[in-house]
Amino acid sequence: AKEQGRNNYQFYTPTVHTKGIKRLQMETMLRHALERNELVVYYQPRLDARTGKLVCVEALVRWKHPQLGMIPPDDFIPLAEDTGLITRIGETVLKQACRQRQLWNRQGVPPFRVSVNLSPRQFRQMDLPEVIHNILADTGLAPEYLELEITESAAMQDVNYAILMLKVLKEMGMTIAIDDFGTGYSSLSYLKRFPIDVIKVDQSFIRGIKDDSEDAAIVQAIIVLAHSLNLDVTAEGVETSEQLEFLKNQQCNEIQGYLIGKPMSAETLRDWIVLENT
Ligand code: C2E
Ligand code: CA
Ligand code: CA
Ligand code: CA
């Protein structure tokens, strides 16, 4: 065992090297994916908890690789964030989502919003309002149809910057949601200062509602707090009818999760809407 211990670093070095190569390969592949339009956007429904009405769909990117099949965002978004490719990916998603919503408008699909995730790096980009303005102008979409999701931790990185940036975006007419809420340790006084509309309670808390009384208490407290600040609460990752019942009893406003519907292609979503309404 001691011998092995001494040699450890020899194994370690090539592994790090391989990892570097893999990263480079992945980055090159991702650049190609952008050029070949292999990134597609899926949409997950979010319902009003009381009425069951479809209020919003979340745009979630997928990489349709011709050989490897569907690659989930967790496998390439972090790398894209590190390398800066996220800026282009983010724009592609925004464009696709706005174009799709505008297409739905022409097809007479009900006027629910589309929410798009902004990465921390995208959010730090000073020209973000201009980028979004141009996409809205190009697609002809009214800003009221667009919601922007920024994680609690990204908002907390630089609170004063976040307040200013969110103000600009909100004044443009978009809705603002704080994503993965409860994981970013924001203090309540900041929450009051953020010009936001929606809080999305992180799915880790929803998962624990039934078996973990602390999680249930946290969710309950977040809902009360959000309502006292006139914010809507969305629960993400709702998978069971027990969770749904609890959330309804706590006056949670909106629900999203596999119990309602998984992320799906734009075409599948249209069929899903028709089915839900019959
Ligand atoms: P997120 O923004 O928190 O998105 C919610 C994730 O939870 C999605 O995973 C969704 O498919 C999954 N989910 C929804 N309901 C349930 C449920 O009931 N149970 C479980 N177990 N999972 C559920 P997805 O699509 O794999 O995305 C993962 C993350 O990747 C997202 O987390 C987001 O951080 C990031 N992401 C996805 N698309 C984009 C994008 O266009 N831009 C950026 N910057 N990030 C993105
Ligand atoms: Ca999100
Ligand atoms: Ca989330
Ligand atoms: Ca998450």
Written overview of the protein:
Residues 23-277 form the EAL domain. This is EAL domain-containing protein. The protein is an alpha/beta fold. It contains twelve helices and nine strands. It has helices at 2-35, 77-83, 86-107, 120-124, 128-139, 152-157, 159-171, 188-193, 203-207, 213-228, 241-249, 266-276; strands at residues 39-48, 54-65, 69-71, 113-118, 146-151, 175-181, 198-201, 232-235, 254-256. Strands 1-2-4-5-6-7-8-9 form an eight-stranded mixed beta barrel, surrounded by four helices. The longest helix has 34 residues, at 2-35. The structure holds ligand C2E and calcium ion (3 copies). Residues 58, 117, 149, 179 line the site of one calcium ion. Residues 44, 60-61, 72-74, 77, 90, 93, 117, 119, 179-180, 236-239, 257-258, 263 line the site of ligand C2E.
SSE blueprint:
Elements: H1 2-35, E1 39-48, E2 54-65, E3 69-71, H2 77-83, H3 86-107, E4 113-118, H4 120-124, H5 128-139, E5 146-151, H6 152-157, H7 159-171, E6 175-181, H8 188-193, E7 198-201, H9 203-207, H10 213-228, E8 232-235, H11 241-249, E9 254-256, H12 266-276
Parallel strand pairs: 2-4, 4-5, 5-6, 6-7, 7-8, 8-9
Antiparallel strand pairs: 1-2, 1-9, 2-3
The chain binds ligand C2E and calcium ion (CA) (3 copies).
